[in-house]
Amino acid sequence: GRGVSFLVRADQSSFSSPASTISSGRRQLVAVGMIAPFVSLVDLTSSTSFAAENKKGFLPVTDNKDGYSFLYPFGWQEVTIEGQDKVYKDVIEPLESVSVTVFPTNKEDIRDFGPPDQVAGTLIKKVLAPPSQKTKLIEAKEQEVDGRAYYTFEFVAQAPNFTRHALSAIVIGNGKLYTLTTGANERRWGKVKDQLQTIVESFKVTNFLK
């Protein structure tokens, strides 16, 4: 049922030029021209949250080389940070950002590393926050999207002069471990948490064509 409302609403959204450059090869829905920009971003047959996929004020990014996609807020700028595959951030509030890292792995399922809270705790301490920052895991959970297990979790990282409140999603596919992390200064968390939640929920890993 949700898919129908998505198609009806789609013509009311103005697709901006970055969206229209997205490849539409994954599903042959080009005939429905107004949704072509989203074809490689989301499987229209899946029942996962169309609300997130069709949010106004967000732009889709698809990395066909590494096989993933997500939404980021309109107005955030892409920046290059060593060790990160993709990073977008707010130019005024630099703590508001989203980053994706990709590591090779011989595991086939994120659950092979352990339960969500254990995996999240290890990643936060070793990868997602500098050793000098004091970290706290707030919540970690598992969900399945298109038959693939994702762990999502919420945490805070405290530095001497600020505290960053963050959300992450991790998943394994294509022989890689993917992590997406987005966050904001704790003082702005109440204003932007829904926006950050949309980013995390939009994160999808696609299967490479064998």
- Number of separate helices: 5
Shape: globular
Mean pLDDT: 80
The stretches of 5 or more residues where confidence is low (pLDDT under 50) are 1-53
**Rg:** 17 Å
Helix proportion: 10-25%
| Category by helix and strand content | alpha+beta
> H/E order of the elements?
HHHEEEEEHEEEEHE
State the total count of DSSP E strands: 10
Measured by DSSP, the beta-strand proportion falls in: 25-35%
Which sheet architecture does the biggest sheet show?
7 strands, antiparallel
Please report the distance between the alpha carbons of the first and last residues: 32 Å
Could you give the order of strands across the largest sheet?
3-4-5-9-8-7-6
What does this structure look like?
With 210 residues, the protein is α+β, with helices and mostly antiparallel strands. Helix content is 21%, strand content 35%. The chain has 5 helices and 10 strands, in the order H-H-H-E-E-E-E-E-H-E-E-E-E-H-E. A 7-stranded antiparallel beta sheet has the order 3-4-5-9-8-7-6, with helices on both faces. This is PsbP C-terminal domain-containing protein. It holds the Pfam family PsbP. One of its GO terms (cellular component) is extrinsic component of membrane.
